[in-house]
Design a protein that fits this description.
heterodimer, A: alpha/beta, Rossmann fold, 8 helices, B: 18 strands, globular
Amino acid sequence: MNKALKIVVLAKQVPDTRNVGKDAMKADGTVNRAALPAIFNPEDLNALEQALRIKDRLPETTVTILTMGPFRAAEVIREAMFRGADGGVLLTDRKFAGADTLATSYTLACAVKKLNPDLIIAGRQAIDGDTAQVGPQVAEKLGLPQVTYAESIDGIDVQAGEITIRRRLEHGVETVAMRLPGVITVNASAPACRPRNAKMVMKYKHARTVSEVQEQQEDYYMALHKERCYLCIPEWGSGDVDADEASLGLSGSPTKVKKIENIVFQAKEAKHLTGSDGDVEGLIKELIASHTIG
Amino acid sequence: MNNIFVYCEIEDGKVADVSLELLTKARALAGTLGCRVEALAIGHNLGGIEKQLALYGAEVVHVADGAELAPFRTLPHAAIVCGVFREEQPQIALFGATCTGRDLAPRVSSALHSGLTADCTSLEIGDHKDAKTGTEYKDLLYQIRPAFGGNIIATIINPDHRPQMATVREGVMKMEPVPANEVKPAEVKPVDYKKYLSDGDFAVRIVAREMEERKIDIKGSPIIVAGGYGMGSKEGFGLLYQLAEVLGAEVGASRAAVDAGFAEHERQIGQTGVTVRPKLYIACGISGQIQHTAGMDGSSMVISINTDPEAPINKIADYAIVGDVNAVIPKMIKYYKQNSK
């Protein structure tokens, strides 16, 4: 790694939890992702931007997106390629389903080992779970150091194998230097991701996974992918990453969902008011009289 | 053995509020389980730290004291926590859901292959019967949290792995000292921590730290004027500052408003922000997702202002004003000024 880094960005396609419909939960308490619009997890875009900035500085750097999910999660890889990533890998296997953060981290770590990068960058957390656990757990599984809550990468000393990172904490800012290889998780307060690049969109618009090509059953794609191998997005299953099956999915997850409750607000008698002058003045007088305000 | 452990955050010789809140909760859980509460203090110059911790119920304090252990760094702290947990076999381990706890706890849970639940809003003890195997479990930790963007409340358990780990945000649990006549001195157990550390644990070095005093204190404010996405813009939030100023209040915000850039992250109230219990909470243009209400439903009085009469916030409000915030807030300011003298 003389003039460049090999970077893996961990990204997740997440249900847009800001718009959840009624039938989004399955009977076993897990989420029926198919019922929701799927988006690129916002902080993973911040992470991608940090990787692309390193590539701006060290142009021979490669940025590979690693995502785990159903077939349609390939959309995340394509989106990242449109913005400047070199390619990606989709981790997909029914055996991965029902994983908690620990089983997810195990699976991701198996794939990262195979890619053997100098640096792993991920978003701090995903909006469907908000746990912020996968980044540190992947780091631990790989035996690598971690720097969380990163806001910017201030320096890269490729020779010394050290990277300088600014992290945003509750009460201030900390600058740390981490020996590579290592894991960084990036905060939403970091710079937003650059938009799609028209040239990249032209180049990669036909990028597909094997399953997507088969689904479309178009000879055109088969021929195109044979000719231009950079358009083929690899799909890896549990066998491809040498994973121990007992550590995957639901069986590899120490946490279990005991109960899911839909939100039922406890109704109490609210006094309903309009925004009229009379109502507002009445309320303010009441609050002053009860010493709630004033 | 098999006690409840609380990882205590310490800055400049003072234990963080969140750690004292966790000790308070641990005391209650230990009472139900009939076990003890132990604290883990890792840092430098920790002499006498057990006195602060005993006031909140720590019966045993494990102390790892060394210059290389402060300020906090993930790897050495994780190695020591794992080492102590392997020897002491706690049944439950609690961490603050702070930048430190949320960085450290997942690393520890991964190394010990024990489950971890982030940002719990409630912790209870209960039993469980596995529907498939019929195995019965007694006295598990129910880790309760909103999930999936706050659209559901999930109860998570770790039936087979120990410790059962959870993080809890500052302000979610109450902080109550042990009654003065019941305080007992804590037993100090120095941790021979060097045996847990290797050179690889120092792969991250701190170059600079600029810590600032907390500028915004919404947690301590008796009145909070909070705005949601319905305020429309950063400029729209200006109205809230005006109302807050005349009432002597602080301004809070929902996650949607913070995500949209209307307010700073420090003002975010809810599961992923601060939990507040003011005597008056004025929710302006906030729909009232559980994610938000989890952080404010302990308020003594709630006034909501929303154009939507069906907004969920109205269900927990004492007064629900159906109207446009841009019209109602100026009226509140006007009538407060007229009537307050």
